[in-house]
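Lab meeting, item 3. Inverse folding demo.
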C-alpha cells in the first residue's frame, strides 16, 4: 500500500515570526500565572521572542510549554540545571531553527511534541531545521493525523542540518484509516546518530508512523526501528528512501507483524529511484 508523500509537498523555508525588530537573547521565566504559551510576554525576559532570537531555558516553575504562533530561531539552549521541559507545538504552528539548533546542557530529557492537524487541508505542529542546525539530544514526538486531509505532526531537516543524537518517535495513526507522524530529511541533511522509531498504527485500520529520506539525504549512523503492527488491518512503521538518498551506515530493523490480518508483513524499508542501502547492514 502506497503512502502519501505528505511531508514532501509544500515544504517552504520559514524565516518569519510575528515581529521584525532586532533579535537577541531571550530567557524563559514561565512567570505567566495562567499559561505556558510562548506568545505571552510574561513568560519571557525581556519579552516574547522575535525572529532570529536565541532562546534560553533554565530553572522555572512552569515546564509545560506550548505554542500558539510560529517562531523562527537561531538556537535554543537548555542550560545546566534546567528541569525537563515539554513543549507542545500546536496544529498549524511551526518552530524552525536556522543557526546552531538545540543544545541541551541540563542532563534532563527535553521534549517537543507536534500535534496533528485538526482541520482538513491544514498542517499539524511542525519542527524545521535548516543550514547546519542540529537537533542535539532532544526528544521529538510526531503525532498522527486527527482528521482526513490534515497533515500529521512533522519534523523536517533541510540543507546540511542534522538530527544529532536526538530521539525521534513517529507515533502510529490515532484514527482509523489515517496516517501516523512523519519525519523527513531533505538535501544533504543527515539523521546523524539519532534513534528513530516509526511506530505501528495505534487503532484498528490505522497506518504507521514513517520517515522519509530524499534528494541526497543520509540516514548516517542512526538506529531506525520500523515497528510491526499488532492490531487488525493496521500497518507497521515505514522508512522510505527517494531520489539519491542513502541509508549510510544506519542500523534499520523491520519488526514483524504481531497479529494475523495486519496490513503487510510488518515494518518496512523501501527504496525508490536511485537511492541506496549504503553500508547499512542487510
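The presenter then showed the designed sequence:
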Amino acid at each position: 500500500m502506497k503512502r502519501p508523500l505528505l511531508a514532501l509537498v509544500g515544504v517552504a523555508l520559514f524565516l518569519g515570526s510575528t515581529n521584525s525588530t532586532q533579535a537577541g537573547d531571550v530567557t524563559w521565566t514561565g512567570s505567566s500565572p495562567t499559561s505556558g504559551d510562548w506568545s505571552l510576554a510574561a513568560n519571557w525576559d525581556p519579552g516574547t521572542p522575535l525572529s532570529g532570537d536565541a532562546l534560553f531555558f533554565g530553572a522555572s516553575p512552569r515546564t509545560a510549554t506550548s505554542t500558539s504562533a510560529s517562531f523562527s530561531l537561531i538556537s535554543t539552549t537548555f542550560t545546566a540545571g534546567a528541569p525537563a521541559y515539554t513543549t507542545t507545538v500546536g496544529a498549524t504552528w511551526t518552530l524552525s531553527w536556522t543557526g546552531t539548533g538545540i543544545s541541551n546542557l541540563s542532563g534532563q530529557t527535553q521534549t517537543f511534541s507536534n500535534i496533528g492537524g485538526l482541520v482538513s487541508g491544514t498542517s499539524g505542529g511542525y519542527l524545521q531545521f535548516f543550514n547546519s542546525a542540529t537537533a542535539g539530544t532532544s526528544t521529538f514526538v510526531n503525532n498522527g493525523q486527527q482528521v482526513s486531509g490534515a497533515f500529521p505532526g512533522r519534523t523536517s531537516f533541510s540543507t546540511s542540518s542534522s538530527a544529532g543524537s536526538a530521539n525521534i518517535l513517529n507515533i502510529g495513526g490515532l484514527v482509523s484509516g489515517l496516517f501516523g507522524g512523519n519525519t523527513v530529511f531533505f538535501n544533504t541533511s543527515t539523521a546523524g546518530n539519532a534513534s528513530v522509531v516509526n511506530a505501528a498504527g495505534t487503532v484498528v485500520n490505522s497506518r504507521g508512523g514513517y520517515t522519509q529520506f530524499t534528494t541526497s539525504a543520509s540516514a548516517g549512523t542512526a538506529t531506525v526501528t520500523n515497528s510491526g503492527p499488532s492490531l487488525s488491518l493496521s500497518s507497521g512503521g515505514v522508512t522510505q528512501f527517494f531520489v539519491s538518498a542513502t541509508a549510510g551506515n544506519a542500523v534499520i530493523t523491520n519488526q514483524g507483524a504481531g497479529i494475523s490480518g495486519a496490513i503487510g508483513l510488518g515494518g518496512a524499508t523501501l527504496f525508490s529511484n536511485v537511492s541506496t542501502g549504503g553500508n547499512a547492514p542487510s
